[in-house]
Amino acid sequence: MIEISHLTKKFDQFVAVDDLSFSVREGEVLGFLGPNGAGKSTTMKVITGFLAPSAGTVTIDGHDISSAALEAKRLIGYLPEGAPSYGDMTTLDFLRFIAEVRGFRGVDIDRRVDQVINEVALESVRDQSIETLSKGFKRRVGLAQAIMHDPKVLILDEPTDGLDPNQKHHVRALIKSLATDKIVIISTHILEEVTAVCSRAVIIANGKVVADGTPSELESRSRFHHAIRVTLTDSHDLVADLKAVRGVASVEVAEDNRLAYTIFAEGGASIFSQVSEIAQQKHWPISEFHVERGQLEDVFSSVTQQSKGLTNG
Asked: What whole-number distance in Å separates Cα of residue 8 and Cα of residue 86?
């Protein structure tokens, strides 16, 4: 388990991380989210021991990252932002170097490097110098070095940054397969990645936790949760039909299509049956009718803006 307790990190008078507390258990893939400047990368650098905390503690499987740094770092694989490496080395040479640093020797180096190259799909560039690789391949080399020693904890900062859609799919599938017996923390600004990969998400703003839950729990806090999208084939006074319908909070017309509506539910309750019944009674000319899931982007915007308002106030 990773335990982060009352973590604070200051740079002179600027507080980047402000009394942050949460824990992550084995088998969890935690999406660590926040707007630019929220403190995500700083938190990850403290968790991995690259920065010392100003206050508070981080323990990795019972090892304090400050007082038992070596024991804690042995358990961690880290992909930092930018995936720094040695550009003049080939992919193979760099990964062999990492394997040796991580304690592999002799034939075990060859075996493990080949295994990781296969897992991260680097076979086509194994003999190419890293400085000549595309951004996506450099990112995958960074991921390969992070998993080289089969760590118990994976800390990944923007793991799919620069990858094309096929590469993103491959890396996300790899992360999910690795997560069965590991703790994985992913910092990302790609919210679709959270729903695709993560079992839980923590959103921070101004260095503080502003939301914590499973993707579906967070989506249920969205104003779009249980909203109904309706597209008509012809004009109809849909708003008038819905005025007296129980549970309907409001109706919005799409800016780009005057025949497309979003019907919002009061308190996120299901209004499908009520709206469906009215649609049949009033003979709406429907071409599309479906229930929305909550939108993580909507929740992200809401909780981070609220935090900004509280800070400014």
From this structure: 32
- State in Å, rounded, how far the first CA of the chain is from the last one: 36
State the pLDDT confidence band at 146, using cuts at 50, 70 and 90: very high
Where do runs of H (alpha helix) occur along the chain?
40-47, 69-74, 91-101, 107-119, 135-147, 165-178, 191-197, 215-219, 238-242, 272-281, 296-312
Same domain membership, residue 153 and residue 254? no
Identify whether residues 208 and 232 lie together within a single domain: no
Cα(187)–Cα(34) distance, rounded to whole angstroms?
Answer: 9
C-alpha 143/C-alpha 147 separation (Å) is: 6
Condensed to tens digits (0 to 9), the pLDDT of residues 126-144 reads: 999 999 998 889 988 999 9
pTM score, whole prediction: 0.84
Pairing state between β 228-232 and 257-265: antiparallel
CA dihedral 137, 140, 146, 152 (to 10 degrees): 180
**Distance between CA atoms of 273 and 290, rounded to whole angstroms?**
12
Residue 297 lies in a domain: no
Distance CA 124, CA 121 (A): 8
Q: In this structure, are 250 and 155 located in the same domain?
A: no
Q: Reply yes or no on whether the pLDDT at 82 is more than 90.
A: no
307 in Cβ contact with 206 (< 8 Å): yes
Task: Give how many domains the chain has, as a whole number.
Answer: 2
Strand-pair partners of 153: 76, 183
pLDDT, tens digit, 9 for 90 and up, residues 88-120: 999 999 999 999 999 999 999 999 999 999 999
Which CATH number goes with the domain that contains 108? 3.40.50.300
Confidence of residue 307 (pLDDT cuts 50, 70, 90): low
Same domain for 241 and 145: no
CB 102 within 8 A of CB 149: yes
* 303 in any annotated domain: no
d(CA 114, CA 190): 30
Do residues 130 and 87 lie in contact, with contact meaning Cβ atoms separated by under 8 Å? yes
Does residue 309 lie in a domain region? no
